[in-house]
TrEMBL record:
Transmembrane spans: 133-158
Pfam families: bMERB_dom
Region annotation (Disordered) ranges: 18-40
Cited InterPro entries: bMERB_dom (IPR022735)
Record key words, sorted: Membrane, Signal, Transmembrane, Transmembrane helix
Coiled-coil region(s): none
Protein name: BMERB domain-containing protein
Signal peptide: 1-16
Domain of life: Eukaryota
Domain BMERB: 37-132
């Protein structure tokens, strides 16, 4: 009987000490599928592939927009140079020009030619970016087929067992 009373006293003493202690916040729990949506592996893989594709498409669109922005800047610069060149050429109606005017016309024409060359290289970059979405290397296709076959084999093996 004394032993039981001793245990009860110790039990209540421990309980009092626990109640006096400041509350300890529960430890943060890592994400587990049971807490969130309960989805299987194939749904997660499909979502990952969709998100990866969307990210790639967004990067491609960004590259395309940057290239088109550069093209527009070059077109504006080309138009300003063309207007400047026509002003210089119309300033001397009799065809007599100073050496400075002739040198300025040459510089403007060279810069216009460089702009045309840069626009052509940007057009090639844009075409390469567009074609990148239509060309899938055969190695990637083969790897995807092997992955799909492996996944199906694992799935059916688990389903039949």
């Amino acid at each position: 009987m004394i032993l039981i009373l001793t245990h009860l006293i110790v039990f209540f003493h421990v309980q009092d000490k626990q109640n006096d202690a400041p509350p300890v916040p529960p430890p943060p729990q890592a994400y587990t599928p049971s807490q969130g949506e309960n989805r299987n592996e194939s749904e997660l893989l499909a979502e990952w592939l969709r998100l990866t594709r969307e990210r790639s498409e967004a990067r491609s669109k960004e590259k395309t927009l940057v290239i088109r922005g550069q093209e527009i800047e070059l077109e504006h610069r080309h138009a300003r140079l063309q207007a400047q060149l026509s002003d210089i050429m119309s300033s001397a109606p009799d065809g007599r020009k100073s050496s400075e005017e002739v040198a300025l016309e040459g510089r403007i024409l060279r810069e216009m030619l460089e702009i045309v060359e840069r626009k052509n290289s940007l057009a090639a970059q844009l075409q390469a970016e567009t074609q990148r979405w239509f060309y899938v290397p055969s190695g990637v296709v083969i790897a995807l087929v092997f992955f799909l076959v492996h996944y199906l084999l694992v799935y059916f093996t688990l389903a039949w067992s």
